[in-house]
């Protein structure tokens, strides 16, 4: 089944969030320390991913032009709008809990930005091999558990964009594999991982309260990365 890995991934996020909600009634001081711990771990993960690039100028240009597009389209406000709509449907946050918007947006960005989502979905669609997505599912499940203890039930709704994003890649994997040369795909994944790592680094800074970066507005940088890598593949330029 082409979507098995994606379905398991979404299910683990849901289960992890529900388990995390069980532990949400912990002292605020512990929640604060846990949040700082999560933020620091996310920062380190982002740094590790950020150093993957072989053509860092591509990453810089992707973030710059992606940020311009993101601000133009106001993606951050739109994502938060979805979270606010969900909050209105299921009720407001409880005392000491973050808004549903924050949990939804933060978790969605963490679960979607990265190479495992693309590589795993392609493996599922082309070879019926779900091992990468199963591994991602376990990681995302534990991450959702920890995030839910501080960010609340909003984390569970990140399973929806994960299902749509990875599911579409898996469904069209064979067509993507036929059209995109392996060398080009490998290059894109490498540079996308680096650009995504910087976004994840920014999420970590937001989590520990140092910044309020509108990370969702940087997401078009992934599209810009694909465009630049493709141009350089067909028209080699030394940068």
Automatic annotation (TrEMBL):
Q: For this UniProt record, give its keywords in alphabetical order, as a comma-separated list.
A: Membrane, Transmembrane, Transmembrane helix
> Could you tell me which InterPro entries the record lists for this protein?
DUF554
The UniProt transmembrane annotation reads: 7-27, 33-51, 56-73, 103-122, 142-168, 188-208, 215-235
Q: Does the keyword Transmembrane apply?
A: yes
By its UniProt entry, which PANTHER family does this protein fall under? INNER MEMBRANE PROTEIN, INNER MEMBRANE PROTEIN-RELATED
Q: What is this protein called?
A: Membrane protein YqgA involved in biofilm formation
- Provide the organism lineage as a comma list: Bacteria, Bacillati, Bacillota, Bacilli, Bacillales
């Amino acid at each position: 089944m082409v979507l098995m890995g994606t379905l398991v991934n979404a299910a683990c996020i849901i289960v992890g969030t529900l388990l995390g909600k069980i532990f949400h009634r912990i002292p605020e001081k512990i929640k604060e320390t846990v949040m700082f711990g999560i933020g620091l771990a996310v920062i380190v993960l982002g740094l590790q991913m950020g150093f993957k690039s072989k053509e860092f100028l591509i990453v810089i240009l992707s973030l710059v032009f992606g940020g311009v597009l993101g601000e133009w389209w106001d993606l951050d406000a739109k994502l938060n709008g979805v979270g606010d709509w969900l909050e209105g449907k299921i009720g407001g946050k409880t005392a000491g809990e973050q808004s549903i918007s924050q949990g939804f947006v933060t978790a969605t960005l963490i679960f979607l930005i990265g190479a495992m989502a693309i590589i795993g979905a392609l493996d599922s669609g082309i070879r019926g091999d779900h091992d990468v997505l199963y591994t991602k599912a376990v990681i995302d499940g534990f991450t959702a558990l920890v995030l839910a203890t501080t960010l609340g039930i909003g984390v569970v709704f990140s399973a929806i964009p994960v299902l749509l994003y990875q599911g579409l890649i898996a469904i069209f994997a064979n067509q993507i594999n036929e059209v995109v040369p392996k060398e080009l795909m490998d290059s894109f994944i490498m540079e996308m991982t680096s650009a995504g790592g910087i976004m994840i680094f920014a999420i970590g800074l937001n989590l520990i309260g140092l910044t309020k970066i509108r990370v969702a507005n940087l997401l078009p940088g992934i599209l810009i990365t694909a465009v630049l890598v493709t141009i350089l593949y067909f028209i080699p330029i030394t940068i």
